[in-house]
Amino acid sequence: MSAPTAADRPTRLGPAVRRLLGLLAEERLRMAAVLVLTVAAVGLTVAGPVLVGRAVDTIFAGVVGSGLPAGAPPEAVAEQLRTRGQDELATMLERMGVVPGAGIDFHALGGLLLLVVGVSAASALAELLQGWLLTDAANAAARRLRTRVEEKVHRLPVAYLDRVPRGELLSTVTNDVDNVARTLSQTMSQLLVSLLTAVGVVVMMLTISPLLTLVALVVVPVATLLGRVLMRRSQRLFVQQWAHTGELNAQVEEAFTGHELVAAYGRREEVAARFAATNDRLKEVGHRAQFLSGLMNPIMVLVGNVSYVVICVVGALRVLSGGMTLGGVVAFVQYSQQLTAPLSQVASMANLVQSGVASAERVFDLLDLPEEEPDRDGALPARRQGRVAFESVSFDYGAGPLLEEVDLVAEPGQTVAVVGPTGAGKTTLVNLLTRFYDPRTGRVTLDGVDVASVPRAALRSRLGLVLQDTWLFHGTIRDNIAFGRPGATDADVRRAAEATFVDHVVRALPDGYDTVVDEEADNLSAGERQLVTIARAFVADPDVLVLDEATSAVDTRTELLVQRAMRALRAGRTSFVIAHRLSTIRHADLIVVMEAGRIVEQGSHAELLAAGGAYHRLHQAQLRARADEPAAQEAAPEPARVGV
């Protein structure tokens, strides 16, 4: 049974959120300042409605007082109202402190209004500083996360990188990390302010009227219940959305990389259909995730409006009964809106938060992957000879053995050619020598030291590697050649280029060694790219040179030049040459023939031909293939000509 994928496994919302918050742990000082500023901003914001309520009471008391006889004691006025049976009005006047005949106290009213403006300005300033500090802390945390992801990728086993599509990995490293960064920087500040505001508002509401507070808090359990239901369903959809995004990126990267083959074989419609199917799945999942998550905001608005109406009705009845002042009701209504606003804000950010958490899960899954085994502290001999030995080496990728009990010795300065059919295990030998993989049993030694006992960097500094797939980065030709050895000078680059016959090719370019290789190295031919990679290996001055199909993309004339250069540069250097064309390795000191993961023959070119075994069969097959090529070309029909 296959393991569940990221798209269908259960979500881990709680652990992901805790790890997200943990990213901010290193910003303790700034986060402490953020908390202080947030509490101050929320406290000042919460104080505003109380001051507004007092201003309303001042205006109302002045208006009512101006209609009463001046100089009459407030107690006497209240007593008169009670004798008339207007007990509730008498209680209301007493609670509001009405002074008969006094009118509106504009001095007190002006002071309250100035205080409201000052409190609002101070709250806005504190919130501005809080947002700036939190954004800075979030960006610093996001930067560390990107660094951790980048370092993690370099510590992952080659087996994982070979197994996972590059587009999927790139989507996690770029899209998901950027989404987590946006979540930290854009939503953390709003969430913090909203939650603290809700707490402060509830406290103030309780001090004004516990009864109205109970009415207002009906919103909270309803919102909580709906939020849990919707988040549980939408979170899985967000995980699927980002998984499909990674799949789509992988398809795009694959199609763009191989667009020439796609066009040449007429598979554009098939590739487009595959893209459209994945794109449709992404659209469907994304729509459902956004729709379910977006339901929270309109639901909160609806519940908040119902709560607002109920509060106004109950508050009016309380004022008429003398249980509350008019200013108290005004303040409470503002608090109810302040309570609904942060809850609605949290609801409106639910899709952003869930999307960020879904991306965080994918990023944390990458960070939790098992890494390469730690390097050991062994060391290679200071005296560099280049003797390589495979001792009873067996290996498999998990789907059957690829190498079985392989014993092979390459003496210092020898050129060892490894040949055999596809899948025989030739490239696997190189992967074990470079420790891209480690053998299941047996060991590989360099100058008598097990390569598994020394740091990988120390081992690979002794190796020069030219792979079948050329890789050039965006930069000048000089930089690409110098990449083979840190600190390589221009003179080193020139010597390597001249030795590999790259120099005359580079000089023919308009900018010479300053020619910039584009992103896909399309401005160089396949042979030129291969020559640059060979020059890069030569500039490294390795003890052991590995050429894995190094001349597969080189034309016949260029191949002859490269062969001459390699013969000169292999002097005193152990070399492994893996090639399909036997003509390129006929002068090798030792030819090793592999079949089904085993060495079936080894010897010189002449010895193996005389033996009449596997090498002889390969040699004869290639001779027949070359002989058949002219006949096939002569027998091929003339291409149809289109008249003009």
Describe this structure as you would to a colleague.
- This protein is an alpha/beta fold and 644 residues long.
- It folds into 3 domains: 13-367, ABC transporter transmembrane region fold; 408-462 and 550-629, P-loop containing nucleotide triphosphate hydrolases (Rossmann fold); 473-541, P-loop containing nucleotide triphosphate hydrolases (Rossmann fold).
- It is 63% helix and 10% strand.
- The chain contains 23 helices and 12 strands.
- A 6-stranded mixed beta sheet has the order 6-9-10-3-11-12, with helices on both faces.
- The longest helix is centred in the N-terminal third of the chain and has 50 residues, at 106-155.
- The model is unreliable at 1-10 and 632-644 (pLDDT under 50).
Question: Summarize this, please?
Answer:
With 644 residues, the chain is α/β, with parallel strands linked by helices.
Query: Got a strand count?
Result: 12
Cα gyration radius (Å): 39 Å
CATH topology value of the largest domain: ABC transporter transmembrane region fold
Text of the CATH class of the largest domain:
Mainly Alpha
Strand content: 5-15%
Percent of residues in helices comes to 55-70%
| Proper CATH architecture of the largest domain | Up-down Bundle
How is the largest sheet built, in terms of strand order?
Answer: 6-9-10-3-11-12
* First and last CA, distance: 62 Å
> Total helix count?
23
Provide the residue-averaged pLDDT. 77
How many domains? The number is 3
The gross shape turns out to be elongated
The description of the largest β-sheet is: 6 strands, mixed
